[in-house]
Amino acid sequence: MKKKFLGFVAVLFLAGSTQLFAWGIGLQGGGVAGRYGTGGLAVTFGLDQVPLLFAVDMGFSAGYFSLAATVDYWFMNPTIVSWDWGALKWHWGVGGAIGFSTWTVWDERYGTFNIGPRVLAGMNLEFLNNKLSWMDHFEAFVQVAWQPMFCIGHDFASRLVGNLFSFPIATGIRMWF
Predict the structure, then answer these.
(1) Could you tell me how far CA 66 lies from the centroid of its own chain?
(2) How many CB atoms lie within 10 A of CB 120?
(3) Which pLDDT value is given to residue 18?
(4) Of 82, 99, 104, 133, which is the most exposed, with the fewest CB atoms less than 10 Å away?
(5) pLDDT for the residue numbered 17
(6) In 18-148, where does DSSP find H-type helix?
(7) What mean pLDDT, rounded, does the chain reach?
(8) What is the pLDDT of residues 15-68, one digit of tens each?
(9) What's the rounded Cα separation, in Å, for the pair 95 and 46?
(10) CB 52 within 8 A of CB 79
């Protein structure tokens, strides 16, 4: 009985909290400066009232594959200029990244588990503010991050290496509901 009651309370809490936030979801593309020949596609989503943005990214090229997730906390997102249909803003913040990469060199397969912090900055353009009944606004953005990564594994052996010079660049769109 107690478990059913707690489950019921949890469902009520989640149902009630969904009304507190506007959700944004979209796509982003990008790559990592210094890593030639790789591209990526990500699904990105965030919360309106809490400045957290999430992305699940897949990178690919000939002989290379990666799957990663990021979470970013925006400290600031001030408006540069605004219009009746939108606003141009800039943002900066911190976050974290976690992922897995594999690649092939001379028919040898390598792989790493990657984790690291992020420091980011970018610009975002909000448009169609409150112009559509089913959506709050669209957002287009561009962002660059400094993302030093700690990598475990190389040829799937236990080895810890670091990459201090990782600079992911992303651009994309989000719809906010």
Answers:
(1) 14
(2) 21
(3) 43
(4) 133
(5) 43
(6) none
(7) 78
(8) 444 444 456 677 677 766 555 445 567 888 887 678 888 888 887 777 888 899
(9) 13
(10) no
* C-beta separation of 85 from 54 below 8 A: no
Question: Which residues touch 80 (CB under 8 Å, ≥6 apart)?
Answer: 87, 88, 89, 90, 123
Show Cβ contacts of residue 55 under 8 Å, excluding neighbours closer than 6 positions: 28, 42, 43, 44, 45, 69, 70, 72, 170
| Alpha carbons within 13 A on the beta-carbon side of 175 | 6
Return d(Cα 152, Cα 115) in angstroms, integer.
9
Token pair 């020949």 in the structure block, residue: 37
Write out the two tokens for 63.
């002989």
Q: pLDDT tens for residues 85-122?
A: 889 999 999 999 999 888 887 877 788 888 999 999 99
The token duo for 155 is 């040829």
**For residue 112, is it left (φ>0), alpha (ψ between -120 and 50) or beta?**
beta
Q: Say which amino acid occupies 164.
A: L
User: What pLDDT is attached to residue 2?
Assistant: 60
CB contact set of 45 (below 8 Å; sequence gap of 6+): 23, 24, 25, 26, 53, 54, 55, 174
